[in-house]
Specification:
Number of helices: 3
Organism: Hymenobacter segetis
GO molecular function, one term: L-rhamnose mutarotase activity
Largest sheet: 4 strands, antiparallel
Keywords: Carbohydrate metabolism, Cytoplasm, Isomerase, Rhamnose metabolism
Number of domains: 1
EC number: 5.1.3.32
Radius of gyration: 14 Å
CATH class: Alpha Beta
Enzyme class: isomerase
Shape: globular
CATH topology: Alpha-Beta Plaits
CATH architecture: 2-Layer Sandwich
Oligomer: single chain
């Protein structure tokens, strides 16, 4: 299974709303992520900085590159866009991280 990690940035003062929206994640979005091959997805918050740290585990042959073109993902990005730094297409600004250590 492939594992990727990345960061995103919340706007000041929106952490509780970000949490609330994820507590009520749309079932169709969860289904879409699973269909794309994501089997484990965690997002952590550094409350002091508003920095989000995300980790995804993906099946071989995953289709996550196709997610941005889906209507559900476009709606989710628009819904979340007021809470975080975004690109012109409403996708979150993502900083990919490089693994420097792993212990099993």
């Amino acid at each position: 299974m492939e594992e990727v990690a990345f960061t995103m940035q919340l706007r000041p003062g929106v952490a509780a709303e970000y949490q609330r929206r994820h507590d009520e994640i749309w079932p169709e979005l969860s289904a879409l992520l699973r269909e794309a091959g994501i089997r484990d997805y965690s997002i952590y918050l550094d409350a002091a900085s508003g920095r989000l740290f995300a980790v995804q585990k993906r099946l071989p042959g995953h289709t996550t590159a196709d997610l941005p073109a889906t209507e559900i993902m476009q709606r989710w990005w628009a819904y979340m866009g007021d809470l975080m730094e975004t690109n012109p297409d409403n996708s979150p600004v993502v900083q990919q991280l490089t693994r420097v250590f792993y212990m099993e």
